[in-house]
Amino acid sequence: MSLIVGYVWSTDSMYTNCCRWLINDFTFKKITNEVRSPIFHTTLLNQKYYWQLYAKNERKEDKDYLSVFLFNRSNIILNGSIRFTIFINDNPVEISSETNDCVIESNKGFGLRRFVESSTIKEAMLANFNHLVILCEIKYNSEKTRKKKLQMNLEVQRLKEFHMRMSSLFPNPEFSDIKFTFNEPDSLPLHLHKYVMANSSPTLANIFRSRPQLRILEIKKVKCKVFIEMVWYAYTGKLPEYFEVDLFRELMLAAKLYKMDRLEILCQAALCSEVSVENIFESLEIAQNYGVKQLQERASEYIAFNEIKVISEITEFPKLSNDDLNF
């Protein structure tokens, strides 16, 4: 079974998807035969893929080369052109020619057995830490993509209209059947609807089923402002309009407490996408304290690519006493 390593992220434009696979601390010794990337999604056509990298090929004619393959894990057939590029420590090493009219059926792959010579990679490697990035640019068949994108836009528009109607109910006390209160100074009660909240949270659904006559519920483990954002998502499907690390951390934990899985995933994705030099250490702390693996990988990847910037932005170090310096 292939070892799963690295971190993958992708970006979409009108008809193109660019996906990058980062392998930190890359060495040939670590790859005994082959490694695989985590499965990742593209938003353009909701495709699922994974990469496979072969560093030691069994075929004699390929033994001095790195081979790279992209596997399609979706039910949708990939139809378009593909181009691969490999970087070692931010420097492009090899760019393949674009392969036109490529077709990858479901659960099958496409790649290059002789992508780049191993000696070329070794020459570009540093003595210690190396990070390797493989970039794949996929240009989909424009007509098929246009139709699919049009269909997706219509679905999104219908969803927006539905959420607009739902948002008119919040925080309207008329016809509400449950009141949430908070043990915080200056906090106001929220007059909501059991059906909406139960539909979003299995935890609340169980409470309402076990206590059908319940009309007032005090919230003790979540701050009022965080609970309001959670309720806003339940009614509208929207995240907060502004980003704060602490807010999204608390919202992620509230979503976990109330088993709102989709909201928890969206909060994790937002924390990953907003990693910056200003919040890199907060992000690492959240990742480690709450076991958010993808945030840990994203923060590590950010440091790997912005090491000098991160160090230069650190202007204050804790003052150490003489006792702290004794070993």
Main features:
BTB/POZ_dom, Potassium Channel Kv1.1, Chain A, SKP1/BTB/POZ_sf, Apoptosis, Tumor Necrosis Factor Receptor Associated Protein 2, Chain A, MATH/TRAF_dom, BTB domain-containing protein, 327 residues, 2 domains, alpha+beta
Description:
Residues 16-138 form the MATH domain. InterPro entries: BTB/POZ_dom, MATH/TRAF_dom, SKP1/BTB/POZ_sf, TRAF-like. The chain is α+β, with helices and mostly antiparallel strands and 327 residues long. The protein folds into two domains: 6-142, Apoptosis, Tumor Necrosis Factor Receptor Associated Protein 2, Chain A (Sandwich), CATH 2.60.210; 178-313, Potassium Channel Kv1.1, Chain A. Helix content is 38%, strand content 27%. It contains eleven helices and 15 strands. The strands form three sheets. Strands 1, 4, 5, 6, 7 and 11 form a six-stranded mixed beta sheet that branches. Strands 2, 3, 8, 9, 10 and 12 form a six-stranded antiparallel beta sheet that branches. Strands 14-13-15 form a three-stranded mixed beta sheet. A hairpin with a 3-residue loop joins strand 2 (7-12) and strand 3. Helix 7 packs parallel to helix 9. The two termini are 44 Å apart. The model is unreliable at 316-327 (pLDDT under 50).
Task: Tell me what portion of residues adopts beta-strand conformation.
Answer: 25-35%
CATH topology of the largest domain: Apoptosis, Tumor Necrosis Factor Receptor Associated Protein 2, Chain A
Task: Return the CATH architecture of the largest domain.
Answer: Sandwich
Helical coverage, percent range: 25-40%
Total DSSP E strands: 15
Which regions are unreliable across 5 or more consecutive residues at pLDDT < 50? 316-327
